[in-house]
């Protein structure tokens, strides 16, 4: 059912997968994600910020999984300045342990020859099991989750970027991520603080990445296309030849948290947020260039 007009400031769409509410401001809220509408052609995606686990999946999981330990904690809090800048933001409800929105739906390893977690992860970053014995999701269950959680999120990104490109002639996507600074399973030693990924330059215009690399991130360390080169979302949606540009930032959690806990450190966050803001403002300026 669709209601519209002065008497109905909200539009409500129903489908077999989601109930979608579109507010008078154009924000979209569904059962699996929230999309806040902006004014400029820049979208920030936070695919690992969700912490929810549906009840039917909870019963199959270990206590470790229910604590959603590998969350990209507090992304919405770190980027809370973005709304005032007129930037679109998409945020999932559910944890990456339900399904990883930044993985290829066909299960293709984004880093051939290196260890990585699956589309529906069965182990945490420390290799501990996420499912009770005999309860791992089979292919039918994985495809159910793709339909319920993965596909709607990606469709929303696709539609938003296409609308931006049509309206403004350009669209920019920032994939906002974070991770512990030490995860021996995936990399040796300590991770740099700011880890940018552009699929080795394939997902965005070279001039944009040069602008990003010219920013002063000190006293934090930074690297481009090091251990992290951008996940599926960055690689799939970044199409600079179509004027759709994407890059990923994997931020070390030591810059704003008390590692290894998931405790937010106000003082650390206060120090790093200006660096994030200058990054977002640079992307916003590029997005609005004719």
TrEMBL record:
SUPFAM superfamilies referenced in this protein's UniProt entry, alphabetically: Zn-dependent exopeptidases
Coiled-coil features, chain-numbered ranges: none
Residue stretches spanning the membrane: none
Short name of one Pfam family: FGase
Superkingdom, natural source: Bacteria
NCBIfam families in the record: hutG_amidohyd
The name this protein goes by in its record: N-formylglutamate deformylase
The species this protein was found in: Pseudoalteromonas denitrificans DSM 6059
């Amino acid at each position: 059912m669709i209601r519209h007009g002065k008497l109905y400031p909200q539009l409500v769409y129903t489908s077999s997968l989601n109930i979608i509410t579109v507010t008078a401001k154009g924000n979209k809220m569904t059962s699996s994600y929230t999309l806040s509408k902006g004014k400029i052609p820049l979208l920030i995606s936070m695919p690992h910020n969700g912490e929810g686990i549906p009840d039917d999946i909870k019963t199959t999981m270990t206590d470790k999984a229910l604590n959603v330990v590998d969350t990209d904690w507090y992304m919405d809090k770190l980027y809370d300045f973005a709304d005032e800048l007129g930037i679109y933001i998409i945020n999932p409800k559910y944890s990456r342990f339900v399904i990883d929105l930044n993985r290829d739906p066909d299960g293709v390893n984004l880093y051939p020859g290196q260890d990585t977690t699956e589309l529906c992860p069965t182990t945490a970053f420390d290799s501990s099991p996420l499912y009770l014995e005999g309860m791992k999701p089979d292919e039918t269950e994985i495809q159910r989750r793709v339909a319920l959680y993965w596909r709607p999120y990606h469709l929303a990104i696709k539609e938003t970027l296409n609308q931006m490109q049509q309206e403004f002639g350009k669209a920019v996507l920032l994939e906002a991520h974070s991770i512990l600074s030490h995860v021996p399973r995936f990399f040796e030693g300590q991770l740099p603080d700011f880890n940018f990924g552009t699929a080795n330059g394939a997902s965005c215009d070279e001039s944009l990445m040069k602008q990003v690399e010219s920013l002063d991130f000190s006293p934090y360390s930074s690297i481009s296309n090091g251990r992290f080169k951008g996940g599926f979302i960055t690689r799939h949606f970044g199409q600079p030849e179509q004027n759709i540009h994407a890059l990923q930032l994997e931020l070390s959690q030591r810059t704003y948290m008390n590692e290894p806990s998931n405790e937010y450190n106000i003082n650390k966050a206060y120090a790093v947020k200006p660096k994030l803001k200058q990054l977002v403002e640079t992307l916003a300026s590029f997005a609005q260039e004719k």
